[in-house]
């Protein structure tokens, strides 16, 4: 099937392509959920690396992977998003094979330098593939989804991905519970298989043709010169910090800082995943007639309230802290339902049609920036346990103040969804 064509071009074929994309994303995230939480354990228990070396290898690979979105943004509107998502599946599948090789080398007592080099290659392939995937995924969703506003399709994608990743994480917990390296190896093999099967399904996905930008006065403005779009990226960065800081720092804050039970952070993450999977479509239906900036504003207020609740947590009586923290995790999850889908839809609707891939690939840098800043904020736990959450609250407050300005300068189509967005097929 050529890139840029829906097979047959009919409505039925378009719906079939959309279902195939959702299946492929479910498979991808099922495998990733089973392996990503175990990556460090695999490198230490199976490949035999020290914790310090494993962390350094993964950190360096992640940093190098940040260079990928700029490459994707330069080519995606020429080669098409489906080819790039397929490429990401191939690269990540190769990463799993490299991880397996590192495990075999470590088990057989190969030279430590060879094991580290192989593990580093695996981590680099994985990081690069992941960046290609996220830099091209949302363009593929926009080009494949049923006709109409993209709020509901983006919500469907988020629900499928969250549910599949959560199920994969449960499988990962079972692999750890076995206490044997075989469970960790099985997670790598399963993830490799998920990429292969997902790629096979993706070959059945057709996409809309992308208009070609031609030289002249009507050539689309590059995203880095599009001021409303840059302001939207800043809002995405500021609101995205909350989840990244939570995932990195909450366990240390809760267990070591507040002395709650060690099981609580895992339950909090499970709640986050469950609410995201179950509530995304419901919130899209609830807010289908709201301005998207208003919806994001509600979510940002919830983010602000959640962050303030963690600032206050250390002064609460110890007996109240577990319930307080779990309730806060639910608030964070609900906030994400209001923010996540709508900011992506605003980005998709703001981008010029002939440069949509480049614009949506650039969005990945807002998420990457949040991921880079999050460890620095988590490090503030060593100064005062409430400081990271105060910083997140400040970021949410700034985003909240920027939203009225964003409402005025974004295109109307980006700010106001059609009334029937919640009823798209």
TrEMBL record:
Keywords: Cell membrane, Membrane, Transmembrane, Transmembrane helix, Transport. It is a multi-pass membrane protein. The keyword Metal-binding does not apply. InterPro entries: MFS, MFS_dom, MFS_trans_sf, MFS_Transporters. It is found in: Cell membrane. Coiled coil: none annotated. It comes from the Bacteria. It holds the Pfam family MFS_1. The keyword Transmembrane applies. The chain crosses the membrane at residues 21-43, 49-72, 84-102, 122-147, 159-178, 184-207, 228-254, 260-284, 296-317, 323-344, 365-383, 389-406. Residues 228-425 form the Major facilitator superfamily (MFS) profile domain. Its main location: membrane. This is MFS transporter. It comes from Kineococcus gynurae.
């Amino acid at each position: 099937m050529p890139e840029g064509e829906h097979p047959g071009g009919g409505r039925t074929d378009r719906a079939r392509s959309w279902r195939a994309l959702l299946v492929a994303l479910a498979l991808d995230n099922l495998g990733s959920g089973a392996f990503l939480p175990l990556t460090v354990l695999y490198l230490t228990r199976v490949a035999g690396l020290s914790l310090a070396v494993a962390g350094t290898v993964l950190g360096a690979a992640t940093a190098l992977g940040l260079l990928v979105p700029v490459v994707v943004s330069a080519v995606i509107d020429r080669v098409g998003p489906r080819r790039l998502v397929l490429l990401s599946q191939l690269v990540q599948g190769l990463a799993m094979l490299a991880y397996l090789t590192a495990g075999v080398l470590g088990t057989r007592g190969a030279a430590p330098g060879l094991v580290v080099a192989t593990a580093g290659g695996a981590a680099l392939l994985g990081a690069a593939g992941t960046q290609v995937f996220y830099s091209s995924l949302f363009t593929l969703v926009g080009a494949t989804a049923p006709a109409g506003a993209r709020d509901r399709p983006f919500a469907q994608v988020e629900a499928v991905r969250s549910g599949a990743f959560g199920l994969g994480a449960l499988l990962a917990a079972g692999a750890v519970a076995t206490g044997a390296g075989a469970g960790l190896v099985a997670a790598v093999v399963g993830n490799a298989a998920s990429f292969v099967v997902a790629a096979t399904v993706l070959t059945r996905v057709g996409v809309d043709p992308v208009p070609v930008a031609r030289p002249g006065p009507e050539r689309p403005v590059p995203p880095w010169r599009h001021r409303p779009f840059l302001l939207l990226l800043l809002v995405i960065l500021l609101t995205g910090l909350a989840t990244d800081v939570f995932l990195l720092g909450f366990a240390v804050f809760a267990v070591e800082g507040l002395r709650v039970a060690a099981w609580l952070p895992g339950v909090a993450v499970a709640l986050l995943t469950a609410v995201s999977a179950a509530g995304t479509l419901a919130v899209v239906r609830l807010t289908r007639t709201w301005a998207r900036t208003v919806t994001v504003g509600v979510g940002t207020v919830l983010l602000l309230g959640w962050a303030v609740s963690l600032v206050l947590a250390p002064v609460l009586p110890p007996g109240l802290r577990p319930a307080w923290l779990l309730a806060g995790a639910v608030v964070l999850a609900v906030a994400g339902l209001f923010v996540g889908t709508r900011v992506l839809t605003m980005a998709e609707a703001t981008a010029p049609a002939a440069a949509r891939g480049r614009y949506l690939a650039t969005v990945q840098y807002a998420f990457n920036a949040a991921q880079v800043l999050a460890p620095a904020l988590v490090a503030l736990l060593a100064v005062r346990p409430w400081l990271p959450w105060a910083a997140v609250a400040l970021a949410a407050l700034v985003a909240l103040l920027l939203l009225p300005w964003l409402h005025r300068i974004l295109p109307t189509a980006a700010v106001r969804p059609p009334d029937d967005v919640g009823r798209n097929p």
